[in-house]
Amino acid sequence: MSEAAASPAFRRTEPDVRRLSLIEACARVLARNGAAGASVRAIAQEAGASVGLVGHYFGGVDALVAATYEHVDRRVAEALDLAVAEAGPAPQDRLEAFVMASFAPPIADTALLATWIAFWSLVTARKDIARQHDEQYALYRARLEALLGDCGVPVSARRRHAIAVTALVDGLWLELCLSPGCFTAGEARDIARGFLASITSSGR
Length: 204
What we know:
InterPro entries: BetI_C, Homeodomain-like_sf, HTH-type_TetR-like_transc_reg, HTH_TetR, Tet_transcr_reg_TetR-rel_C_sf. This protein has helices at residues 3-33, 40-47, 51-58, 61-86, 91-100, 110-122, 127-150, 155-178, 185-202.
């Protein structure tokens, strides 16, 4: 294929590449500077782009931050889905893989934690971020409920157990990223594995 023939296809994909570069730059700025430091100028500079490009693709910094929140959450969800897919068909293995993935890269990452903290800081200040937060955690818990159901946990107990597992994972993940010297990823997995065994074996 000639260069001239390939050029139009390249130009069609270029806007998506530029949009993604702004989102990734926004995530880095949020991790480094927090939500208060995520200005249009700072993000554009990080991306090596013009300030006007942010307005062109997102209309402003608020929409860019929201798009970045969605993008980061999707990356986490993809990592969880991959872990479950690689675990095989056994329900208990799939449940464990879903939970244990939070204690290994790319989820157990200090930069990801810093970005996530910036998002959390906006939950009480912005209704759109609060809505995203609620939707994302609802999807996470729904996935957990389905995996717990596959392990024989009755319907009446799934929601309660999903909330408990989510709280356990969040707490261990936070401490593992913030203070990795306090305990190891292996210890986090052992703690989570023991809790999963207790709720799937009792069925209550």
